[in-house]
Amino acid sequence: MKKLSIIFAMFLFTAILMGCDNSDDVAAPDNSSSVLYDMQGTIDSLPMEDLSEAEIEGLTIMREEEKLARDVYIYFYNKYGMRIFNNISNSEEKHTSAIKALLDKYSLEDPVIDDTPGVFQNEDLGALYTQLTAAGDASLLEALKVGATIEDLDIKDLMDYEDEVDNQDIIFVYDNLTRGSRNHLRSYYSQILNNGGTYDPQYISQELFDYIVNSPKETGRP
Q1: Which of 4, 131, 136, 209 has its CB 3.0 to 4.6 Å from that of 143, i.e. a possible disulfide?
Q2: CA Rg value for the chain
Q3: What is the pTM of this model?
Q4: Rounded Cα distance, 200 and 59, in Å
């Protein structure tokens, strides 16, 4: 029954969470309010279970790590006007909102006190924001490589944190976020190649990277 409840919830929710992951070049519609409402309902439909310290740590870090991705992509969209950054920043807004829904469900403190782009409670993430935006200032190609690096890191961290999780609702969200990051990595890598560049994975294995970029985008259906 536990496995069936996860599968059923994923069937309901995946299209919502992944809806803006299917296009590199067309701006995603602004439906954040309705998406957040549906995400909250799906997360709440899964049972509340005891949290371990590792699960709490993972949620706290991933809340700001998804914000980091959103903020960097907003910065690059404002600088270069390339729609891939706008599309994926919209997707990252949904990702960080999904983590926020879990924090609220378990009455955990939200590390995002100030949602201003570039502002973080985690000093390492704040420093990383400065480093990544500076790297992407060099050129559009470098900005696309930064996007690939962020998704590369996201995939690794989500997989690592999920190894420490047994709560159904957290597994559900992490699975969907990881799938989204794989699609984002595919999109950025495609644009890197289109702009005459290359990218080598920094965090995930070369084998996993090759599998991701050489496979089609995922629809997210079970």
Answers
A1: 136
A2: 17
A3: 0.82
A4: 28
Q: Tell me: the pLDDT tens digits for 150-182?
A: 999 999 999 999 999 999 999 999 999 999 999
Give the span between the Cα atoms of 100 and 153, in whole angstroms: 20
User: What are the structural domains of the chain?
Assistant: 57-213 (1.20.1260.10)
What digits encode the pLDDT tens for the residues 183-220?
A: 999 999 999 999 999 999 999 999 999 999 999 999 85
With vertex at residue 91, the alpha carbon angle to CA 86 and CA 97, rounded to the nearest 5 degrees, is: 125
Q: What is the 3-state secondary structure (H, E, C) of the chain?
A: CHHHHHHHHHHHHHHHHHHHHCCCCCCCCCCHHHHHHHHHHHHHHCCCCCCCHHHHHHHHHHHHHHHHHHHHHHHHHHHHCCHHHHHHHHHHHHHHHHHHHHHHHCCCCCCCCCCCCCCCCCHHHHHHHHHHHHHHCCCHHHHHHHHHHHHHHHHHHHHHHHCCCCCHHHHHHHHHHHHHHHHHHHHHHHHHHHCCCCCCCCCCCHHHHHHHHCCCCCCCCC
The whole-number pLDDT of residue 40 equals: 73
Return d(Cα 165, Cα 29) in angstroms, integer.
Answer: 33
Residue 4 has pLDDT above 70, yes or no: no
Tokens of 28: 């995603």
Contact 126, 120 (CB under 8 A): yes
Locate 35 and state its tokens. 């998406």
Q: How confident is the prediction for the chain on average, in pLDDT?
A: 85
Tokens for 105?
Answer: 């469900």
